[in-house]
Specification:
The protein is 36% helix and 16% strand. With 177 residues, the protein is α/β, with parallel strands linked by helices. The chain has a six-stranded parallel beta sheet, sandwiched between helices. Strand 2, helix 2 and strand 3 form a beta-alpha-beta unit. Helix 3 runs parallel beside helix 5. The chain is globular. The relative contact order is 0.24. The structure holds adenosine-5'-triphosphate and magnesium ion. Adenosine-5'-triphosphate binds next to helix 1. Magnesium ion (MG) binds next to helix 1.
Length: 177
């Protein structure tokens, strides 16, 4: 890899942000690139990629660094607990970005962590600025802050046209988790 890396943001209210990032990881591993996905918020539920990523080891590393849903569904943790996990996730991201071991790093749901007040916009801006020249950095989650969009090279907004959830169809294994 010789070109400079990109800052990529997947945002918007339609489905497909994390899936797009995972697709990119799959593509990158095909070239033997080293990929690390650090998931904010996620950690209490099971997602298929937590197991399939192991089949792509050692090139693909996935770290679920969250404490699960915040203030909804099965959440019983106090906000401080979520903040502690998010702070730890930022530390992991900093370490991984500075390690210069990876070609692609994905900060999954980091925009939600910002919107929930678990992480500051400044924390994310600083992470982006730490990026080694050649590293591709992906950030996912709806309502990406303007400061983050500003620093990105590629921003895609997923737009919901239809979602089965609206007709009462529950999240599906292999499709949604
Ligand atoms: P995915 O992980 O499926 O790519 P996503 O990353 O775009 O989705 P998130 O905001 O991270 O979306 O939400 C994750 C979960 O919420 C998934 O189970 C997803 O199917 C569901 N979801 C995503 N978009 C919508 C929507 N517009 N309405 C209802 N549920 C949604
Ligand atoms: Mg997502």
């Amino acid at each position: 890899m010789t070109e400079d890396g990109l800052v990529i943001v997947y945002t918007g209210g339609g489905k497909g942000k994390t899936t797009a990032a995972l697709g990119m990881a799959l593509r990158a591993v095909g070239y033997g690139h080293k990929v690390c996905m650090i998931q904010f918020i996620k950690g209490s539920w099971h997602y298929g990629e937590m197991d399939s990523s192991k089949r792509l080891m050692p090139e693909f590393e996935l770290i679920a660094a969250g404490k699960g849903f915040v203030g909804i569904l099965d959440d019983t943790s106090p906000k401080e607990e979520h903040e502690k996990y998010a702070e730890e996730a930022i530390k992991i991201c900093t370490e991984k970005i500075l390690s210069v071991k990876y070609d692609l790093i994905i900060l999954d749901e980091i925009n939600y962590a910002v919107n929930l007040g678990l992480v500051s916009t400044q924390d994310v801006v600083e992470l982006i600025k730490l990026k080694p020249k050649k590293l591709d950095l992906v950030l996912t989650g709806n309502h990406a802050k303007e400061e983050i969009v500003e620093l990105a090279d590629l921003v895609t907004e997923m737009k919901e046209i239809k979602h089965p959830f609206k007709s009462g169809i529950k999240a599906k294994k292999g499709i949604d988790f």
